[in-house]
Amino acid sequence: MFNGQRVLPFDQTKCQNSAQCTATFVAGDSRVNLFLGLTTFHLLFTREHNRLVSRLQRINPHWTGDRLFQEARKIVGAQIQAICFREYLPKILGSAFATTVGTYRGYNPTVDSTIANEFTAGAFRFGHGMIQEFYPRIAENNRTMPGFNFVEGTLHSDKLIFNGGTDPILRGFMQTPLKRPQRLTPSITEQMFGSTDLGTINIQRGRDHGLPPYVKFRQLCGLSNPRTFDDLSREILSTNAREALRRTYSAPDKIDFYVGAVLEDPVVRGLIGPTLACVVGPQFARTRDGDRFYFENPGIFTRIQLAEIRRSSLARIICDNGDRITQVPREAFRLGPMVSCAEIPQMDLSKWKE
């Protein structure tokens, strides 16, 4: 506890007051302090783990501390997988989800779940385009609080522990329309990295990793092969974007993978274009199918425990682990009316009783 809040571990001596707070949180990923949004979700799932430990201890008082820790850790991992494949990916991939990810059919030991170079060095960087310029914060009474620009939210743990905690940030996330990934906001192109920018870094990373050009990936994905910049009109409706590509590259087959892929218009009901979907979807399918510990693989959980995990949702985790969150959208990834947390399904942990 610090300043009346359940927070991640950190050196409290570095935060005696808000003016001098320089502390950074400690978590399983060193990027926990990079942005307040990331910090908030690291904290949210840490709280969920601790909540599960407390509940399981009441249900199974004979369990050792290690057993409680490991079982809670296993459940949280399963919740994250369920949220990813049942809530997040269908909204990112839209109509491409069924063909690129599809239904889980069990662990396949022949599947190589290694993260592909084109995924980590190019395709999954599309999320940088979803970064907002400004993030609102909303108080418990639905009153707007002072928000923050993206750059103001980077490397500033003090804004979390001294300025209202996680709840205003979570409410702001849940009530703010997303930004489509086809354009980068000025915060990350002009302010975050001084003389360079995140888009440039992404392009150079792809070149450093030896990624083939955008057109080559379209060929590998069985998509059309644009030979002229006018041919791109079927993939990129924006005339301004196509003209910018024409000014920058000598020919379509010179376009960097990251640049061409993020500029594509999204697939039906999705947020990314067909080339990105062709790389992102199969990667998640391989990661799932090649993982013998994936939560739906028989033997990981009992049948009735698995049914409870499938009831889990990001909305429920926000309800259970916010400071005083009482309302959420039914689907946390979809902008919609707020409903009482009492209407959001919960897991029944009595199914873990031994």
Could you describe the 3D structure shown?
With 354 residues, this protein is mainly alpha-helical. The protein folds into two domains: 12-106 and 132-178 and 295-352, Myeloperoxidase, subunit C (Orthogonal Bundle); 186-289, no CATH class. Helices cover 41% and strands 5% of the residues. It has a two-stranded antiparallel sheet. A two-stranded antiparallel ribbon has the order 3-4. A hairpin with a 5-residue loop joins strand 1 and strand 2 (144-149). The longest helix has 29 residues, at 65-93. The two termini are 31 Å apart. The model has no long low-confidence stretch (mean pLDDT 93). InterPro entries: Haem_peroxidase_animal, Haem_peroxidase_sf, Haem_peroxidase_sf_animal. One of its GO terms (molecular function) is peroxidase activity. One of its GO terms (biological process) is response to oxidative stress. Heme b binds at residue 128. This is Peroxidase.
Topology of this protein?
Blueprint: H1 36-59, H2 65-93, H3 97-100, H4 117-120, E1 134-138, E2 144-149, H5 158-161, H6 166-174, H7 186-191, H8 198-208, H9 214-220, H10 239-248, H11 257-263, H12 274-289, H13 303-309, H14 314-321, E3 327-329, E4 338-340
Antiparallel strand pairs: 1-2, 3-4
Write the CATH architecture name of the largest domain.
Orthogonal Bundle
Rg: 22 Å
Strand/helix succession: HHHHEEHHHHHHHHHHEE
Poorly predicted residue ranges: none
What is the number of beta strands?
4
CATH superfamily of the largest domain, by name, is Haem peroxidase domain superfamily, animal type
How many helices does DSSP assign? 14
Query: Structurally, how many domains make up the residues?
Result: 2
Q: How is the main sheet built? A: 2 strands, antiparallel
